[in-house]
Structure formats: structure tokens, C-alpha cells
Amino acid sequence: MDVLLQWWLTELRPRFGDDLGAAGAPLFPSERRRPDGRPSRVAASSLRAALAAAVHDHLPGWAGRLTPHMLRHFCASSLYERGVDLKAIQELLGHEWLVTTTRYVHVRSEHIEQAWVRANGRVASRLGVGG
User: Fold this and answer.
1) Most C-beta atoms within 10 A of its C-beta, which of 94, 101, 110, 114?
2) pTM tops 0.90
């Protein structure tokens, strides 16, 4: 992911204007320009429409179901599954309350089972049981 974002920031983003470091500069600018020549932000509706079109073309079984909100849940779950701390995920998603973030994280049953095995292994090693 960091390679893709780095590519966007160094290769493509500068083509939309030199205001990348300016406060309020859009990370994902539109090709449309403001009256002063600066790029405007891509509207949320444009991003939703582009996602819907891509899903329709490439994942027809998900049409009408794969939304930006669903992608936030997937992102949160994927990060948690890879060991990212819940507090860090909360910050990334911009949630005020940690409980909101826990609702975004969907844990697979294998993850729960592995956590159970690891916890029992730690307890057994502390008690000197098992080997």
C-alpha cells in the first residue's frame, strides 16, 4: 500500500498542481479547476459512482453491495488481522470512540482460534506445563 501511495504522491499528484503541501490541498483532486486555476476536490459522489461502475464491470456479483463504507470495514478488519493496534485503526478511521472502531473490525473464526491457542500457550508456559 505504501508503494502505491508513494507513487501517487510523487508521480501523479503533482500533475494536478503544485499546491500539494498547502493547507487544504486535495489528496485526490479533480481535473476541474477553480477560477484561480487550482484543482478542486473530487466530489464524494464521483468516487462513489466510479466505484459502482468498477464493481459493475469487474465484480458483477457485488454490484449494489460493495460501497465505500464496506471498504472502510474491510480496511479496518484487514489492518487488525495483520496486527495493527485497535487504537491506531481508530485514528486512521477518524473515530472518536474506540467502541465504534470495534464495530468496524470483523474477525474471522480462524483468527479467534489462533488467539485462543496463543493465550493458552502463554498460560501453560507460565505454569511450566506442556513443552
Assistant:
1) 101
2) no
